[in-house]
Amino acid sequence: MLLIATPLPAAVGTRALQEFSAAAAPENMTQLVAPEGTRAVLLSSRQRVDAAAVAALPASIGLIATCSVGFDHIDLAACAARGIKVTNTPDVLTDATAEIAMLLILAAARRAREYGQIMDQGWGKAFALNQMLGMQLSGKVLGIVGMGRIGGAVAYRAQAFGMTILYHNRNRLPQDAECGTYCADLDDLLARADVVSLNLPGAGNQPLMTAAQFARMKPGAIFVNTARGGLVDDDALLAALASGHLGGAGLDVFRGEPAFDRRYLDQPRAFLTPHMGSATLDTREAMGHRALDNVAAFLAGRTPADLVTRAA
Fold first, then answer.
1. Domains of the chain and any CATH numbers
2. Among 216, 257, 263, 285, the one annotated catalytic
3. By mean pLDDT, which of 174-183, 266-275, 300-309 is the weakest?
4. Is 257 considered catalytic here?
5. Which residue among 15, 228, 269, 290 is the active-site one?
6. Which member of 39, 110, 113, 275 is catalytic?
7. pLDDT by residue (tens digit) across 57-92?
8. pTM attached to this predicted model
9. Which of 32, 38, 94, 236 is 20 to 30 A from 157 (CA-CA)?
10. SS3 per-residue string spanning 45-104
11. Using CA atoms, how far apart are residues 140 and 243, in angstroms rounded to an integer?
């Protein structure tokens, strides 16, 4: 039996019911609970599967298929100890996440949150030539930290806006000339970029961006994060915004989400979205179908295509 532990787009839900002996968990389930006889579970990143949850799963379960690229919500070591395989849904989120990264870059650079607030308040007065000025992206330098599929898709879109690309990656890419200029040293990228975008794959909860890193960024630079909230020291970013050292920030991910540091609400130059990187119908359907493909392979005795084989 397949337990569907997260609400699905209609087309994906229909397929699950047609192809599998599927049962749906309550929509408000945040901690995984599965009945006896369940062989596979399909869930999303909003369900935490910690060691205690894994220990409580029935012995029949052999697969947890998450509709997400990230898998830091699942205790992989506990799953491995129980012989439970874990799959994710890579690749299909690339375009949607790159699009929201560009939304955040544009919104932070052009002060979209402040402009929206002005219109909500009825506008009412004209602005002088030296007021409410944002950053024009054409001719600026975008520094991409993590040049995987999503980072590459962001670079492709940013180049259409006339931006020059720098990137920092674990390794220099073979197609270096197409990606931009490689920066082996993160600090070098931070010092040269007008906009910095985090696009690191996988999981992470140790801050990469601390007070020292934000201090190395150009005065007035923009910081954008669509990777992981845990990669950012919130105190340091808030201080950089409050001091005016940074010109703005665009954030789609947060430490401890769906809770987040509400001090960001007091920063008008911070444009915030509630982890919506993959939130298009096309992408969510593709994620669901890919997860079901992994379930189908497992139930048929084949190796699922998207096995997660490393610890978060």
1. 2-92+280-299 (3.40.50.720), 94-272 (3.40.50.720)
2. 257
3. 174-183
4. yes
5. 228
6. 275
7. 999 999 999 999 888 889 999 999 999 999 999 999
8. 0.91
9. 236
10. CCCEECHHHHHCCCCCCCEEEECCCCCCCECHHHHHHHCCEEECCCCCCHHHHHHHHHHH
11. 22
